[in-house]
Amino acid sequence: MPYYVIFIKERVKDQNEIKEYGKLVPAAAAGRNMKRLAAYGEIETLEGPEALGTVLLEFPTRQDALAWYDSEEYKKARAHRFLGADYRVIMFEGV
């Protein structure tokens, strides 16, 4: 079963930290078995709090998703994301 990770940006705190995050993310994705299905396209919030941005990633398995999320490369990147913005990050099983 595929697994998906969705990032929902809710609030920007420091744009410079978000830029640094953006610079580090490609290294974290390099060599990983993952697909970026959507990233920061046009958004229309139909229900709930407004989203400022979204990213949808696909992984072959839960283990692949967690291996990427817990990798040293992504830990380094996400430290900047934590400083730069408030996100909701959700992992879920596909069908």
Would you kindly provide a brief summary of this structure?
The protein has 95 residues and is of the alpha+beta class. 38% of the residues lie in helices and 33% in strands. A 4-stranded antiparallel sheet has the order 2-3-1-4.
Write structural notes for this entry:
This protein is an alpha+beta fold. The protein has one domain (3-93): Alpha-Beta Plaits, CATH 3.30.70. The chain is built from 3 helices and 4 strands, in the order βαββααβ. It has helices spanning 15-29, 62-69, 72-84, and strands at 3-12, 35-39, 53-59, 85-93. It has a 4-stranded antiparallel sheet with strand order 2-3-1-4. Helix 1 runs antiparallel to helix 3 (72-84). The relative contact order is 0.38. The mean pLDDT is 96.
Keywords:
alpha+beta, Alpha-Beta Plaits, 4-stranded antiparallel sheet
Unreliable stretches: none
**CATH class designation:** Alpha Beta
Structural class: alpha+beta
Whole-number radius of gyration?
13 Å
Shape: globular
Q: CATH fold name, please?
A: Alpha-Beta Plaits
What is the second-level CATH architecture?
Answer: 2-Layer Sandwich
Helix content: 25-40%
Give, in spatial order, the strands making up the sheet with the most strands. 2-3-1-4
Q: What is the number of helices?
A: 3
Beta content: 25-35%
Largest sheet: 4 strands, antiparallel
Furnish the topology, listing elements before pairings.
Layout: E1 3-12, H1 15-29, E2 35-39, E3 53-59, H2 62-69, H3 72-84, E4 85-93
Antiparallel strand pairs: 1-3, 1-4, 2-3
Helix pairs in contact: 1-3
